[in-house]
Design a protein that fits this description.
mainly beta, OB fold (Dihydrolipoamide Acetyltransferase, E2P), 2 domains, four-stranded antiparallel sheet, 1 helix, disordered C terminus
Length: 148
């Protein structure tokens, strides 16, 4: 029998990796390859923010769910108006769904991930046009609205 991994197996592996303290995981089972890098939260990287826009980032590692359930229409799309408390999607880890809030007010300029895509902690999910973003500003990822 050829070994294989289910989506739940992969989510279990990702959760264990997130808690492990290891910086890199490269695992191959049959024809499935999982390769993940974990960024350190002790040295927050600087991110260049274009004038008049900010990015909403993933608060944790997992699968991005764009709507209220798998296959449902997305909460937001390009051109949608968002408020700080607007839910833009969920991050799924095993059977737990963590809501992701916009954390700012503005218009969605770009959706940077697809429904069902695995995302890493700090990965950009949306780019939102705002009037409060400083042109060419640089801010640490750990200061983003969705960082726990």
């Amino acid at each position: 029998m050829t070994p294989s991994l289910t989506q739940d197996d992969i989510m279990d592996i990702l959760e264990a990796f997130g808690d492990s303290g290891f910086a890199h995981l490269d695992l191959t089972v049959g024809s499935i390859r999982v390769s993940v890098n974990q960024t350190s939260t002790s040295a927050a990287p600087c991110v260049d923010v274009p004038a008049d826009s900010e990015e909403v980032v993933a608060p944790l590692l997992g699968m991005f769910q764009a709507g209220p359930e798998a296959g449902a229409p997305a909460f937001v799309k390009r051109g949608s108006m968002v408020q700080a408390d607007t839910t833009i999607g969920f991050i799924r880890v095993m059977h737990d769904l963590t809501p992701v809030k916009a954390g700012l007010r503005g218009t969605v300029l770009d959706v940077l991930v697809q429904d069902g895509q695995f995302v890493e902690f700090g990965q950009s999910l949306l780019r939102v046009g705002t009037e409060s973003a400083a042109p060419g500003s640089c801010r640490a990822e750990s200061n983003r609205a969705n960082t726990p």
